[in-house]
Amino acid sequence: MSEAGHANGKITSVLSEQRVFLPPPDFQKKAHVSSLDAYSKLRAHAADSETYWAAEARERLSWFQDFDQVLKWQAPFAQWFVGGKINASYNCLDRHVEAGRGDKTALIWEGEPGETRRYTYSQLLEEVCRCAQAIKQLDITKGDRVTIYMPLIPEMLIAVLACARIGAPHSVVFGGFSAEALASRNNDAQAKLMITADGGYRRGNIVPLKENVDAALPHSPSVKNVLVVKRSGHIDRSTWHQERDHDWHEMLAAQEPFCPAEPLDSEHPLFILYTSGSTGKPKGILHTTAGYLLGATSSFHYIFDHREEDIFWCTADLGWITGHTYVAYGPLANGATVLMYEGAPNAPDPSRFWKIIERHKVSILYTAPTAIRAFIKWGDEHIDGHDLSSLRLLGSVGEPINPEAWTWYHSKIGGGRCPIVDTWWQTETGSIMISPLPGATPTIPGTATRPFFGIDVDVVDKHGVSVPDNTGGFLVIKKPWPSMLRNIYGDPERYEHTYWSHIPGMYFTGDGARRDSHGNFWIMGRIDDVLNVAGHRLSTMEIESALVSHPAVAEAAVVGKPDEIKGESICCFVTLEAKTQPSELLKQELRQHVAEQIGALARPDEVRFSDSLPKTRSGKIMRRLLRDIAAQRSSVGDMTTLEDFGVLERLRAEDEENA
Ligand code: PRX
Q: What's the pTM?
C-alpha cells in the first residue's frame, strides 16, 4: 500500500488523500447493489423521493393498516405515511416468527466477565411480551414515557422493544451519565417509569446504576416505579424502596408469554433521545414510529448489504443513536443476527474484540474511529493470531476517520478484502445519510462518499447557495426524509431555531463539509460549539455551566483540542472567584465536579486557570483564540488539516453572524 502522504510517520493532509479503493469483485458479485452504475440509477429513481419512500415502506415494513398520504410537510414539521398503522416491535420480532424464522438466532450476547447468552427470535419475542405486560402492570399505557438506564445486557434490548410494543416512548440514558444528568432527563421527558439494573461491568469495575437512580429520583418526582434487573448483585435488596422498586425477574416470570403488539399511528412517538446542542440544556430528539423504522430498515439492508447468514456487530451502546438504529431496530427489522458485548474493548486485555469476532464468526463490524485509533496504539500484537477471516464488511461512524486509521482498519482488520463504509449521520437524522454502498462505491480514505437513496444533501454558503466543488461550506439536507427528527421534545421553537433558521428551508446539520468533483462529501467537523470527544457529542456550554456551578469558579470557557485518540479532548479555561487560590488540587476537584454533574464522559482533560478570558467588545468570549491557544501546545495529530481548521473557523464566524 502506498505510503504517500506520510511525513514523520503521520499522514499530514486529508485533502491530498487520493488512494481509491474499488469494491472487491468477490464482494460485488453478491451485493444488493453491485455497481456504481446501479447505484446511480437507483439514486436517480429515488429523486422522486415520495414515490421512492412509499414503495420502500410497503416493501420493507409490515403494516396493520396501509397509509394514504406519504408526506404531509408543514415546514419544518413533517408527518410521514399518514393514516398508516404499524408497530416497530412487531416488525422486529413477530413477523419473522410468523414467517417461520422463529428459530433463527436474533441475539448473541457476551458479558464483560465472559458469559454468553443466545436468544432466537421466538425467545426474544417471548421475553419482550413478558416485559411489555410487566410494564403495563406498573401503570404504563400508550404514550407514557419510560427511562431506560441500563448496562448493555439483553434485558436492555428487551426493555426497548417492550416499550415500542405498547407505544410507550422510551428515553434511553447512557449508563455513563451521572445521577444529575439522569434526573434532568427524567424531568424533561416527565418519565413515569425507570428500567435499570443494580450495576453493569466496565473494565472489571461495577457501574453503580441503581445507586445513581436512587440519587436521581428524589429530584425527578414524575417517576413512580423502578423495574430493576439483577446483573452485578453488588447491592442488597433490603436497600430497595419497597413501594417503588420492582424485581424484573419476579415480575417477568409471573406474566403471560404473549402480549399483542399495539397498532400505532405512523407518527406515534417511538423514542426520545437526549443529545447535546450548542446551548447548555440537552435536547430531547423525538423520533416517531414508521418513518424512523423505515430509515433504519432500508439503510441497514443496503449499506450493510445484509445477508441471511451474517453475524452483525455494531459496537455502540444502546444509549446512543447508533445503538438504537444499528443494534436494535435496523438489524432486527431485517431479521439479522446481532452481536452485543457489554464491556470495554480492553477488558480483560486489548484482544477482547478480536476474540469475540473469532469466537462468534462476526461477518460485519461497525465501530468508531476513536476505537480504531486506540487499537493502533495498543499494538498489532493483540490482533495477530486471531482468526478474523469471517469478516466481510467494516463500518465506521461518529467522527471523521483519518486516512491512517482507515488504511490500518482496511489492511489489518479487513485483511485488504473487506470494503469499508464510512457512514455520516446524526442523532437527528435517525439513520445513515451519507455512505458508500459496499458493492458499488469506490472509496477514498477520509470521505463518507455519497448520499443514500432519497436523501438530498448539499454544501452551501450562508445564503443557501451551493458552493463550487472543493470549497468548504455548510452541510445541509434539502428535503424532508422519513427518519428525520420530528421535534425537540416539548420545545418546537428550539427545533425550528436550531435546525431550520440558519438557512431557511434547509435542515442545518451543524457540520462543515466540502464536495469533490466526483460527488464525494468530505466532512470537516462541527461548526457550532459542540465537541466530538471519542465519538460522543458534548456541548461546551453544558460543561461551562457545570464548571460555574462550583463555588470556586467565576467564569469558564470550554473548547476542543485536537487529540490523537479521541479526536477532540476537553480543554477548560477558568477564572476563579476572588480569594480563591489556583492549585493542582482544585484542578482535580473541578474535573471531578464536571464528571458528577454530567458523567465521566465529560470529565475535562485539561483545566487551565486564567486571570481573565479574551472577549469581544460586546462581551462574547473569543473561542477562536482559546482554540488556537489550546491547540498550539498540543502536537496537532493527523485528525484534520490546518486548512480544515481555517475553513471551520470561517464557517463558525459566518454562522454567528447569521444567528
Ligand atoms: O459531526 C458529525 C459527527 O457526529 C455528529 C453527530 O453526532 P451524534 O448525533 O452523536 O451521532 C453520532 C453517530 C451517528 C455529526 O454531526 N459524525 C458522525 N458520523 C460521522 C461524523 N463526522 C464525520 N464522519 C462521519 N462518518
A: 0.94
